[in-house]
Structure formats: C-alpha cells, structure tokens
Amino acid sequence: MSISRRSVRILGVASASAALALGFAGNALACTIGDFSAEATCDGTNGVITVTDKDASATEATITVFLENNGSDAKQVGEAQTVKGKGETVTFSEDWQPNATYRVHVKAGNKVDEDISPNLTTPSKACATESPTPTPTEASPTPSETPSAPAESDTPTPSASESSSTAPATTTDNAPSPAAGSSNLAETGANSNTGMIAGIAGAFVVAGGGAVYYGMRRRGATNGR
User: Fold this and answer.
1) Is this model's pTM higher than 0.70 or not?
2) Would you give the DSSP letter of residue 147?
3) How many helices (H) and strands (E) does the chain have?
4) How many CB atoms lie within 10 A of CB 206?
5) Ordered alpha helix ranges (H), the chain
6) SS3 track for 196-212
7) pLDDT tens digit string along 49-97?
8) Angstrom distance (rounded) from CA 73 to CA 102
9) Of all helices (H) and strands (E), which one includes residue 52?
C-alpha cells in the first residue's frame, strides 16, 4: 500500500503540532523565578518573612534571605531553607523594621539561580507589641465606719459626780483654838456675856436717872419754903 504525498504531509503536520504542544507543556512545568514570591507579615507580635513556591514541577529549591543596607547585604536572616513547589511555603523569623529592604535568593537545580525581583520591602507599620499586663495591687483595707473604742486605762478615773459631791474632810482636832480674849468678840452664841453687861449698864442708867430726879425735887422743895 503506497502512501501518498498528501498523507505524508498530514503526518508531518501532526508530528510538528505534537512536538510543539509537548514543548509548551514542558515550558509550563519548568521551574522559573516567577514561581516564587515573598511577603513580610506578623505572626502575632513577631515579624516573619514568608516565601511561597508555586512551581508545578515540584523542583526542590533553596531559599536564602538577606537584610539589605545601602544596596549590600547587612546580614543573613536565619538559615537557608528548602521548598518543593505546588504552593509550599517557608517562613523566616525576623523582627523586621518598617520600610526595610530584604533580598530573597532562589536556587533550584540548574534551572533557577537568581533573586526575586524586586526586593522585598516591609510594611510602613511594625508589628504591634503586647502591652504589659498590670500587676494587681493589693486592695487597701476599708476603714471601719464605727471607730473602735479606746482601750480602757488600768487606773480608773473618778467620775465628776464623785469628785464634786465629796466634801473635803474638816480637821477640827488639830486646828488651833482662838485666844481667850478674842473669843467673846467673835462669838455671838449663848456663850457671849453681852446681854449681862447691857443689863448692868441699864440698871446704872435707871439708878442715875432716879437720883437726879430725887435731887431736883428736894431742891425745889427747899426753895419753896
């Protein structure tokens, strides 16, 4: 059975199409730098740098991160980590500062050996820090509404009524007696001699008056003769 030129041409076109399709498929599965991306985020209060590998071919790649300063590497962040495509991620702990620049390098066999472009720039706001938990202070004792009574003294205090009602004792036995000559002048009781003296004086007055009257009568009688 002979093959016509037309049939050969058709087979050639089909083979070329298949080869071209396989070429596109191979390129689609190939690992490229475009399969990798980096992002600076916060894990709670800690800063992290996360690198994602979307390589469909699952080619193993090594990721290294560097902090940049004026276009040069200031330090390497942690240790290099490996990732195998299909959306796998690796995380680098880094207390990054706002607007800092990091260089992320990818090495995947003999297919990729370059940096993710452009370099990673961190957000303008740092991760929030936890506010210190205030230490609870001991509650001050609540003052009692009723003041406590003062402690009683061991020595009893005499009451006002007792001190005012109790008269001082009169000491008559040891007091000196007044002089004999001045006792009649000071005393006015039954022991005084004033009444007797007044009676005697009155009697002398009456007697004197009678004597004068009698003398005047005799003189008158004598003159009448």
Assistant:
1) no
2) P
3) 4, 9
4) 10
5) 5-29, 160-165, 180-186, 194-224
6) HHHHHHHHHHHHHHHHH
7) 999 999 999 999 999 999 999 999 999 999 999 999 999 999 999 999 9
8) 9
9) strand 46-53
